[in-house]
Design goal:
The chain is of the alpha/beta class and about 300 residues long. Helices cover about 35% and strands about 25% of the residues. The chain is built from 9 helices and 11 strands. A 6-stranded mixed sheet has the order 6-5-4-7-8-11, with helices on both faces. The radius of gyration is 23 Å and the shape is globular.
């Protein structure tokens, strides 16, 4: 889908240069982070911190459910009231609280680096901002870069002072390789056994189907949150006439004649693709935000807060 017109008359754009900290994470950016963290606390003012924690069956104090008694279970966990009433041996299960784990999965395939790397730069800034909010709320934050596999990862960290570790990790990310979200998410799941919130920042240009990668997370009981990084210029290639269309990830080429009607059909296909992604996420109850690179990153983060699903 969307093998866009990547270069007129066979001229390919040069690979994007890596972005320095001065460009992305300067003092103004950091001041905005502090403001966003304060806003996040006001949005959720009055809530107990435990409400931001995930829960699993364990030995806590809050009752969760019953299950049948099995040989070897501790007799102290038996529900004797149930036994007296129904003559059944059932074991009480309780909820055990644990801090929320937030994983930021950043698509660093070549399509994210097209057009001077606007989409990758934007994804870096949004993930840095949301990471800071998570760290400020004492959640466990980890970052992963992917193409058709897991490329690099920043181990789990806590505390807002660790945001500079996040900056360093994001700074060194380059756009390279092909997109295969399914294979990448299978590798991610195998490497990360602790369930949590998965913030996926990607343009979702996956020839194998963007749904497959998200489904891997859903079926393995993670909570995906999709930040769909888009660039309006992707839908409006500024070319006419005989051109060479090539896939920036695979290098496959095709000579085509681009007319105004072809561009119109391309724009409609692009809109249909966006609608397909939004419909899929809505039908599967996956939180979804379209993140156009023209929107200031702090405004986008506020949209994430309003959308819900990130801060628990």
């Amino acid at each position: 889908m969307l093998d866009a017109v990547r270069g007129a008359l066979g001229k390919r754009p040069s690979a994007p240069k890596s972005t320095s900290k001065g460009d992305l994470f300067d003092d103004e950016f950091q001041r905005k982070l502090a403001t966003l963290a304060l806003v996040s606390k006001r949005v959720f003012a009055g809530r107990m911190r435990a409400e931001r924690r995930t829960k699993k069956s364990g030995s806590g104090v809050e009752f969760a459910d019953h299950r049948d008694y099995q040989s070897g279970d501790d007799f102290r966990t038996l529900d004797w009231n149930i036994y007296q009433r129904f003559d059944r041996l059932l074991v009480r299960l309780y909820e055990e609280e644990e801090d929320l784990a937030i994983y930021f999965v950043i698509d660093t395939s070549r399509s994210m680096g097209f057009a001077a790397g606007r989409k990758l730069k934007y994804a870096k800034r949004v993930c840095a901002a949301l990471s800071y909010v998570g760290l400020a709320n004492l959640d466990r934050v980890s970052l992963v870069s992917t193409t058709d596999r897991v490329m690099d990862r920043m181990p789990t960290t806590r505390g807002k002072a660790r945001i500079f570790r996040v900056f360093r990790f994001l700074e060194q990310l380059e756009a390279e390789g092909r997109t295969n979200l399914e294979d990448a998410m299978k590798a991610f799941v195998a490497q990360n056994k602790r369930r949590g919130l998965i913030v996926l920042a990607s343009d979702l240009y996956d020839p194998h189907g963007f749904q497959r990668g998200i489904n891997v997370l859903r079926y393995n009981k993670y909570d995906p949150f999709v930040i769909h990084v888009t660039d309006a210029e992707d839908a409006k290639p500024k070319v006419l006439g005989d051109v060479i269309v090539y896939d920036c990830e695979t290098g496959d080429e095709r000579e085509v004649t681009v007319t105004a009607s072809v561009l119109d059909r391309f724009a409609r296909a692009y809109r249909d693709y966006l609608a397909e992604i939004e419909h899929y996420c809505s039908s599967k109850q996956v939180p979804y935000i379209q993140a156009d690179v023209s929107v200031p990153f702090d405004e986008l983060v506020l949209r994430v807060f309003r959308r819900g699903g990130f801060l628990r």
